[in-house]
Amino acid sequence: MATVLDFEKPIIDIQNKIEELRQLSENSGLDLEDQIELFEKQAEDKKKELYSTLKPSQKLQIARHSERPKFLDYVNLMCEDFIELHGDREGMDDRAIIGGLAKLNGKPVMIIGIQKGKSTKENLEYNFGMPQPQGYRKALRLFKHANKFNLPIITLIDTPGAYPGIKAEETGQGAAIAMNLREMSKLSVPVISIITGEGCSGGALGLAVSNSVMMLEHAYYTVISPEGCASILWRDAAKFADAAEALKITSKDLLELGIIDEEIPEPIGGAHTDYNEMAISMKNTILRTLETLSKMSAEELRCQRYDKFRKMGKFLEN
């Protein structure tokens, strides 16, 4: 059974009414098609209204939806000839970050992403989408491989943050992320990053120092999770909705602030309602952006990337 979010219940109520009318029509032989069509239109109108006026806390629920497409779903739907490349060359292969060579409309690319699971077993394999230092080192190895062979880089990001465990700290979590930030800024090939679900803190930024940073319509991108922010500011994680509002985590807010470059629309109801439509939209956006970036020289790509991040933020003086 599909997961129903709390704010979707009015739509579900109408859909249940439609199903009741269909059953009644089938059992009694009555022609109730006009009433069914009326309720179907009401459901569609309600859905459009609801999803065009979502609060940040509601977008948060969609971004974390258990049925939302994961990295490998997008790879399988968008790419041809994907070949996964394993390991950080230091003895580890963090499954939270997956990457490899692929073709996008016949064009060779390096595609790297943070993978979550859809079941408890998968989430344990992928560590709930929380990379460890070995994952960032693997990503860095693939960045350098792509740079050497002049391959555009695409990163898809969906993480609640880098793994915060003691073992990760002991093996250099902060240093691994910092190294990625530095080395990504120096890449000579086009780099595109898309926040597909959750984009939290340095765990997301470690794959997102790019020429073009985009977000899906109902994804979020933030320096700290709303729950973490509420715990610090108000000593109460239950106030996450207030924190989500204040943090400006949505694609529209971040586009206005100049943090991201583009919002990619999702199917009505979220990306999980139509994997194919979402993948096609993402693929077309990536190809269009690559066409623009491919006209820039290596030096222009580096300068554009550097300038883009230097311009973020504002200082107010009284």
Topology:
Blueprint: H1 9-28, H2 33-52, H3 56-63, H4 71-78, E1 80-84, E2 97-104, E3 107-114, H5 120-125, H6 133-148, E4 153-159, H7 166-170, H8 173-185, E5 191-200, H9 201-205, E6 212-216, E7 220-222, H10 226-234, H11 240-247, H12 251-257, E8 262-264, H13 275-293, H14 298-310
Helix pairs in contact: 1-2, 4-13, 6-8, 10-11
Describe what this molecule looks like in 3D.
The structure is a single chain. The chain is an alpha/beta fold and 318 residues long. It has two domains: 48 residues; 251 residues, 2-enoyl-CoA Hydratase, Chain A, domain 1 (Alpha-Beta Complex), CATH 3.90.226.10. It contains 14 helices and eight strands. Strands 1, 2, 3, 4, 5, 6, 7 and 8 form an eight-stranded mixed sheet that branches. A hairpin with a 2-residue loop joins β2 and β3. It is globular, with a radius of gyration of 21 Å. 39% of the residues are buried. The mean pLDDT is 92.
